[in-house]
Amino acid sequence: MELFGRTNIPVPPVWLSLREPESPSPGWAEALCEAAVSAKTIIDISQRPGLFGGLIAGKGSMVMAVGGGDCSRAPDAGWAKNFIEAKLVSVLSCLRQDHLDFFFLDYNGPWEEWQIDGALEAMESARQDGLIRFSGLSSSGNDLATAAMWNFHDAFDAVLMQRETYFSEVSKIGAERRCGMVTYDDEIDGWPVLKRVSELACA
């Protein structure tokens, strides 16, 4: 496995994003989580942390989550910081462990500068306290707005992109800063996946 950008850790090329199927059958969640743990990859529990977190708790899997999009509603930096802290506490409580391997800030900007500052302060504090190993940026909004924010805040070890932004400004910054990059990709056997992107492909 390749080292994942500036994290300097090896990660699998395909990560799993757990979702509820359109027509769930009895025991689907347990079977899905068992298969995800067996795959020995990084597991995204963002969609249903309360359900998936408990089912993979204590299984030794690397876990990621995306959150913080509600910081766009924060009236000041303190509120933005509280939104991030509350999200982390909620996810870690569901997971019943003391840290996440990756936490991606769901940046749907443009945001006000105080919203950005509060969110990043909370993430850095969480990293220093060992609650998250690596900070990530999830580019879910306007590509140029995300790139503009990132140009002034080099706070991320990884970036999560939409499939259509392989060669966007965000991916170029990720390559320049040697960040690990993943993108939402096609489904495998009906399950959404994230795929690692080579930095060279986006340079």
Can you offer a commentary on this structure?
This protein is an alpha/beta fold and 203 residues long. It has one domain: NADP-dependent oxidoreductase domain (TIM Barrel), CATH 3.20.20.100. It is built from 7 helices and 8 strands; from the N terminus they run βαβαβαβαβαβαββα. It has helices at residues 28-38, 49-56, 77-95, 113-128, 143-152, 169-176, 199-202; strands spanning 14-17, 42-44, 62-67, 100-107, 132-139, 158-161, 180-188, 191-197. It has an 8-stranded mixed β-barrel. It is globular and about 45 Å long. The model is unreliable at 199-203 (pLDDT under 50).
Which descriptors apply to this entry?
203 residues, alpha/beta, TIM Barrel, eight-stranded mixed beta barrel, 7 helices, 37% helix, disordered C terminus
